[in-house]
Amino acid sequence: MIVVNAKMQTNKENFKIIKKAVKKLEIKTKQENGCIDYGFSVELHNKSVIRITELWKDLKSLKDHLRTKHIEIFLKEIAAGEPPKTDAHFFEANSIPYPDGDLPKEVQG
Question: What topology does CATH give the domain 2-107?
Answer without folding.
Answer: Alpha-Beta Plaits (3.30.70)
